[in-house]
Design goal:
By secondary structure, the protein is mostly helical. It is 51% helix and 4% strand. The longest helix is centred in the first third of the chain and has 29 residues. The protein is elongated, with a radius of gyration of 20 Å.
Length: 101
């Protein structure tokens, strides 16, 4: 089980990303636009740098929904490998059967 503080920190980051998504997208498009003057593009980059660092989507860490574990994560199921195996053994994941011989 991951520390509660790590899971909560990640949840706060998710909220910030959602809050600043539109603003970040607009500033990035302005900064990449080759038709704009270099001064305008540079100003957009400075404004982008002033935004909170945790509002960037790359700061989010994928974590298991049940345990908060960050490693061995399956995106499709939002579970770590340990929980995936345990739930598959119990037959709680539709269409998945743990092989044994």
């Amino acid at each position: 089980m991951a520390k509660t503080s790590s899971v909560e920190k990640n949840n706060r980051r998710r909220k910030l990303v959602a809050q600043y998504a539109a603003k970040r997208k607009a500033l990035k498009e302005l900064a990449k636009d080759q038709m704009k003057r270099p001064e305008e593009r540079f100003a957009a980059r400075l404004k982008l740098a002033e935004l909170p660092r945790n509002s960037s989507a790359t700061r989010i860490r994928n974590r298991c929904e049940l345990t908060g574990r960050s490693r061995g994560y399956y995106r499709k199921l939002k579970l770590c490998r340990n929980q995936l195996r345990e739930l598959a053994s119990q037959g709680l994941i539709p269409g998945m059967v743990k092989s044994s011989w």
